[in-house]
Amino acid sequence: MKLSDCHNFQHFRQLAKERLPSPIFHYIDGAADDELTYRRNTAAYDDVDLVPNVLAGVENIDMSVTLFGKKLAMPLYCAPTALQRLFHHDGERAVAKAAQKFGTMFGVSALGTVSVEEIGAMIDTPKMFQFYFHKDRGLNDSMIDRAKAAKFDVMALTVDTITGGNRERDLRTGFTSPPKLSLSSLLSFATRPEWTINYLTHPKFDLPHLSTHVKEGSNVAMSIGSYFSTMLDQSMNWKDAENIRARWGGHFALKGVMSVADAKRAVDIGCTGIMVSNHGGRQLDGGRSSFDQLAEIVDAVGDKLDVVCEGGIQRGTHVLKALSLGAKACSGGRMYLYALAAAGQPGVERALGQYRIEIERAMKLMGVKSVSELNRGNLRFR
After folding, report:
1. Cα 68 from chain centre
2. For residues 379 and 321, what is the distance between their CA atoms, to the nearest angstrom?
3. Is 26 tagged catalytic?
4. What sign does the dihedral 24-25-27-33 (CA atoms) show?
5. 264-298 pLDDT tens trace
6. From 11, 88, 89, 279, the catalytic residue
7. What residues contact residue 29 under an 8 Å CB cut-off, 6+ apart?
8. Cross-strand pairs, 127
9. What is the C-alpha separation between 82 and 176, in angstroms, rounded?
10. Is the pTM of this model over 0.85?
11. What's the CA gap between 226 and 231, in Å, rounded?
């Protein structure tokens, strides 16, 4: 399969599967326990029908949105995700350049493999730094200060990783960061020589935001589930979140809010946004899908902060459905990670380009000229 054969999310997934060693692919592809919530995240969109209007004069379409005070050329951005140089040797550099080309936001993870300093100097598109609250307070302060100095526009505190989810595929494949060979995975790495050569011949794998303070994940191999369970501070509470917001001083969001009560608390501590997200189904299995939970959260706080719908998005019509419920924008990880793994920056550009085309086409077929015209009257629930 070639990049030119990729026309949708599933095609990129298939090409990524062909090119990645099995433990790396299943780290992207897998989720917690029985992966029920992971499947629900996308299936939820199938339970809602779009009702179009016609004769609306839709020659010119404006799909731009304003999020965290910044204008995005499209209502979909690249959510922060960890370990990107494992998927392609260019990692975050490739995604950042693609996001800039499409005028959308790019998120860098605390567990990213390219530093905020490098990304900040590389692109001028809106940038988000995703923060994990560690036991090491010096590390926490360092990450906040570095992202601020790199002039990142938004900080997102991830709040749904108080312990690691039970990612059984990672247990089965032996996935760790950095990767380590085992008898069971040796054949998979050997039969993906292009990935293996690139990994061995490019700069050493590193987590630059963490490796100045901790060895785990960069020099000491560890699963992500174990990292969350042992390195992150399980005592994190609302006062900690408020203190982080105060130290940051700019646009601040909670990533992983799924209840109305928590959304209201986010307003109370001064957040300017929240990501309605279940971490791609990778944490609490059996939880509700982000899309199913979106409307009641928008009704509660949508006039007080920016609400982002994250997870399960595989089509432009999914974005329109979330925007119709009141989300300011949508975001996702797998929707560009498979493309990154498949072909680096050209892959991410192809994926973002297809989403942009799908959103524009669907808006025209829906009879709306701008995102602001989308509303719940466009939807019917089965």
Report:
1. 16
2. 7
3. no
4. negative
5. 999 999 999 999 999 999 999 999 999 999 999 99
6. 279
7. 13, 17, 169, 334
8. 106
9. 12
10. yes
11. 8
